[in-house]
Write a structure and sequence with these properties.
The complex is a heterodimer of chains A (about 350) and B (about 170). Chain A is mostly helical and about 350 residues long. Chain A has twelve helices and two strands; from the N terminus they run H-H-H-E-E-H-H-H-H-H-H-H-H-H. The relative contact order of chain B is 0.05. The chains are: A mainly alpha (about 350), B mainly alpha (about 170).
Chain lengths: ~350, ~170
């Protein structure tokens, strides 16, 4: 009873809450880092160094007036933010934060579940997230959101292809779709997959930027052209849900990249005994550190690179990333078969 | 017992959403009900211990094909009411005809099943002729051994459809 119901529920509770807190603080981190990049201070007023800013933001968003345009499609308009938020959160069910640990004399796994199709589950859930964006643009009954949502969904669908192809080459390396097995495979082969699959790693990262609508691929939110993006007509907490979904997706992409390419919860050089002192840091901490590095790079890229033009974005996706990913997949397959022979 | 309850609940949802798909006036809502329907079908696959199929169902149908449906429905102006056909009963008759055909087919299948019951497939993992374990691995194994030719023909079909779409869309190549 405790093992099948209580502990999973507790884990879900902890992961969901930790994610939501992390998401709100990601917003602050982003504002701070971009401010530093631009020689500003960023939020400083609310709390010491602005650490309470996310809470102030949340309160503001919650007490703001909630407006539904008169000619909007009410049901769909209400459902769209929920549809974008839910996939971003349920993905965490299969992300392994660490291996099995002993906690109060009980063996507890540091992941909610380890299904045999973990990686595919993530891809499929992410593919449902597109609906939130399309429907938000459609239901608003307004031209800019509609244009933005068309852009966003075209972008998501294009880059999904490249990202999924890179995932296939990782699966070929690991021989499994389970997230935990992929980490174990990296332990057994003594090398993080980022070093054996550098091309896949880079494509995954670029695709991840595009799939989370982040700079330099943040065309769906190009203010100058679209007055804000697919969520132009949303206000208050509904707008906040889109915002949170975007950041939650960033964390998802970082966690998946960490698991697939940077050895998940493994410490650096997990097979070098001389580095055993690194085990002082618990496994889940390594996972969080690696994911944090990714998140930081996300922000760093936004502070550094200008936005792509729409045709450049599509050209990059279809004419560079997808052929490269296919080539990488073919080479991986040939090498694997040659080694197995 | 629990499995039966879960099955009937899911089946009720699937049928309910299927009815909503064809009865809703707003085409976009209809497409959304179709997505919900596919998600419940995926749940049915989970119930059948076929997680791979379930995930592919969501990925391909709910996340891929219906997105394209939605594009088409959103971009084509469907606000205009369809012109009435001269024979108002035409659609009804056609519908009844098709429904009768499907019913006949289902009846034939269940009758055939009743007379010559299909050999009960061994539970997952215990099949002797599949050297791999795990749902995904078994699906892959079967696809690339027993069902290789149907699999390749299906991919040819998709390729042809893709080329056809490109040829139709781009007049001058």
């Amino acid at each position: 009873m405790i093992d099948t119901v209580v502990i999973p529920l507790l884990k879900i509770l902890i992961v969901l809450n930790a994610t939501l807190v992390a998401v709100t603080y990601m917003v602050l981190l982003e504002r701070k880092v971009i401010a530093w990049a631009q020689s500003r201070l960023g939020p400083m007023r609310v709390g010491p160094y602005g650490v309470l800013q996310p809470i102030a933001d949340a309160v503001k968003l919650m007490i703001k007036e909630d407006i539904t345009p008169v000619r909007a499609d009410k049901w769909v308009f209400t459902a769209a933010p929920i549809i974008s938020m839910v996939p971003a959160l349920i993905v965490y069910a299969v992300i392994p934060f660490g291996p099995e640990v002993n906690l109060f004399g009980r063996k507890v796994t540091l992941y909610i579940t380890d299904v045999n199709v973990g990686l595919l589950y993530i891809v499929s859930v992410a593919s449902v997230g597109v609906y939130g964006i399309i429907l938000a643009g459609y239901a608003s009954n307004s031209k800019y959101p509609l244009l933005a949502s068309l852009r966003a969904s075209a972008q998501l669908i294009s880059y999904e292809v490249a990202v999924t192809l890179t995932l296939v080459s990782v699966i070929l390396m690991a021989g499994s779709l389970s997230m935990v097995s992929i980490v174990r495979a990296q332990q057994n082969t003594h090398v993080w997959f980022a070093f054996v699959q550098p091309v896949a790693f880079v494509i995954f990262f670029i695709g991840g930027l595009a799939e989370t609508n982040r700079a330099p691929f943040d065309l769906p939110e190009a203010e100058q052209e679209l007055t804000g993006g697919f969520h132009t007509e949303y206000s208050g907490m509904r707008f906040a849900l889109f915002f949170l979904a975007e950041y939650a997706n960033m964390i998802v992409v970082s966690s998946v990249a960490t698991t697939l390419f940077l050895g998940g919860w493994l410490r650096p050089f997990p097979n070098v005994a001389a580095l055993g002192f690194l085990d002082v840091v618990p496994s889940w901490m390594w996972f969080l550190i690696k994911s944090f590095v990714f998140l930081y790079i996300f922000i760093w890229v936004r502070a550094t690179l200008p936005r792509y033009r729409y045709d450049q974005l599509m050209r990059l996706g279809w004419k560079v990333l997808i052929p490269l990913a296919i080539l990488n997949l073919v080479v991986t397959g040939i090498v694997r078969v040659a080694f197995l022979m | 017992m629990a499995e039966a309850i879960a099955f009937y609940v899911l089946a009720a949802f699937i049928l309910g959403f299927a009815i909503l798909v064809v009865s809703t006036k707003d085409t976009v809502h209809s497409v959304l009900f179709l997505v919900l329907d596919f998600l419940f079908v995926a749940a049915l696959y989970v119930l059948l211990n076929a997680p791979f199929l379930a995930v592919i169902q969501v990925l391909v149908y709910a996340g891929g094909i219906v997105v394209l449906y939605l594009f088409v429905v959103m971009l084509v102006n469907l606000k205009r009411p369809p012109e009435a056909h001269q024979d108002p009963h035409r659609r009804t008759r056609l519908g009844f005809g098709l429904a009768a055909a499907v019913l006949l087919e289902l009846g034939a299948i269940s009758l055939h099943d009743y007379i010559r019951p299909a050999p009960v497939l061994a539970a997952a993992g215990t099949t002797t002729n599949i050297p791999v374990s795990g749902n995904t691995e078994q699906v892959g194994w079967l696809l690339y051994t027993n069902y290789l030719i149907p699999f390749e023909i299906a991919s040819m079909l998709l390729l042809v459809a893709m080329i056809g779409a490109i040829v139709l869309a781009k007049r001058e190549l």
